[in-house]
Amino acid sequence: MPTIPDIPGPHRLFFYSFDCNEPKHVHVRRESMTCKFWIEPVTLGYNKGFKANELNRIRNLIFDNLDRIVEAWNEHCGE
Which InterPro entries does the UniProt record give (predicted)? Predict the structure, then answer.
């Protein structure tokens, strides 16, 4: 379960190795909450526990680090 390094904050951004057959996306976890955002375009795939205001912060975090996330996806899944 590769984690994307050097993204500040309490959220862990990561991929599951078996997800490489899906379109680009990133999973986000904090405590027992988790969500998934599709990357192209950045849209919420699912949410378990995050409130709307935190999902907005996570979306902004993804936009701010989009190049790093796509690069990590491509390194892990190939492209």
Answer: DUF4160
Query: CA torsion sign, 24 to 61 to 42 to 40?
Result: negative
User: Could you tell me the two tokens for 59?
Assistant: 């979306």
Sequence-separated (6 or more) residues with CB below 8 Å from residue 37: 25, 26, 28, 43, 44, 45, 58, 59, 62
Cβ neighbours for 24, distance < 8 A, ≥ 6 positions apart: 38, 39, 40, 70, 73
pTM beyond 0.90: the answer is: yes
Q: What is the pLDDT of residues 18-48, one digit of tens each?
A: 889 999 999 999 999 999 999 999 999 999 9
33 exposure class (CB count in 10 Å sphere: 0-12, 13-18, 19+): middle
